[in-house]
UniProtKB/TrEMBL annotation:
It comes from Franconibacter pulveris. Keywords: Chaperone, Stress response. PROSITE patterns: SHSP. Belongs to the small heat shock protein (HSP20) family. It comes from the Bacteria. The keyword Signal does not apply. InterPro entries: A-crystallin/Hsp20_dom, ACD_IbpA/B, HSP20-like_chaperone. Pfam families: HSP20. This is SHSP domain-containing protein. Residues 34-153 form the SHSP domain.
């Protein structure tokens, strides 16, 4: 399970270190033949306009009934579970022979995002292997950033004393 804080301004250093860890994990997985420690589909966060965002996950081959999206207590949870297996522990897709190589991951996953209380999930769609979750930021005027002007103090006039 992965936990992410959703922010309109994600930390660049978090992304860099997370990406490095994921690359190392994938490299060792390729060398050993094991599955990566934690599979999570790649995702993008895009700001559509001032108050709307889109979270897009790459989920090729997944069907709508295999994906669940839930919002509870400030947590957005996206779960992917494969179809039910047959008695011989093979899925319906695997029973159809002819595979020479299977490189597209169909590993179950669970992603969690902490979303601020003023952000609401508006919709979700699955198209061409991309799951898109729409988010809307509802800020009150008192919560919006305010620019504070800096006033410059007028210089005092120098008085000349004749003495």
């Amino acid at each position: 399970m992965s936990l992410h804080d959703f922010s309109a301004y994600p930390s660049l250093t978090d992304a860099v270190f997370s990406d490095r860890f994921n690359r190392i994990d994938r490299l060792f997985s390729q060398l050993t033949g094991d599955l990566p420690v934690s599979f999570k589909p790649p995702y993008d966060i895009r700001q559509m306009d001032e108050n709307r965002f889109a979270l897009s996950l790459s989920v090729p081959g997944w069907k709508e009934h295999e994906l669940e999206i839930e919002v509870t207590g400030g947590r957005l949870t996206i779960v992917g579970k494969k179809e039910v297996k047959f008695d011989d522990n093979r899925s319906a897709e695997e029973t159809q022979g002819g595979w020479l190589h299977k490189g597209i991951s169909r590993t179950d996953f669970c992603l969690n995002y902490a979303i601020p209380e003023h952000m609401k999930v508006t919709d979700a769609s699955l198209e061409d292997g991309i799951l898109t979750v729409g988010l809307h930021q509802e800020l009150l005027e008192s919560q919006k950033p305010q620019r504070i002007p800096i006033h410059q103090k007028a210089p005092e006039a120098l008085e000349q004393k004749n003495g």
